[in-house]
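Hi V.,

You were right to ask for the full record rather than a summary. Here it is.
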Amino acid sequence: MKTIAKAVESEINVKKSQFICHLFPTKTKKESKEIILKVNEQYNDATHNCTAYIVSDGEGFDDDGEPGGTAGKPMINVLRKNELHNVTAVVTRYFGGIKLGAGGLVRAYSKSVLEAINEAEILEVELYDIYKLIFEYSDIKLADGEVRNNNLEVIAKDYSDKVIYEVVSKDFRDIEKIFEKYNGEISVEFKNKEVLVK
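Predicted structure:
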């Protein structure tokens, strides 16, 4: 699975129309929608702000007034073909007075996203399971021992009412063993998260 390291912008001109593509690393639909809103505000004088996103909780696209299927869909297809995830693409178009036709629009929006991808730093990512181990302060030594014995990587620690370790695991059975062994003493919560692999 791939994503982009940071936001990138590129620009192409097709028959006097200006196409500005912005790619953003995003993880959720909520994040994508917030970014799309910001770009719409920034380029509120544009003829169209067409969008496509593929994130952890879904995907979507919008033609923003262009003929159906000529902008958002070609954009998301380019993201899919390049196996990109956790990314939002916004292509801003300033109409130059010459109509491009349906085929011309599809090519222009596709090319715009492709140009931006070529500018971007692509990262390979792997999806790991992230678990929260929750326990009392008196069980810290116990938990540390289990983390070591099961080769778990602790990515965050929180010391509040109870101690919470966020741990990365490739194999659910390691976590299951801890849960079964210390049921009641160490509780386990599951959540998914992407971890970059360098």
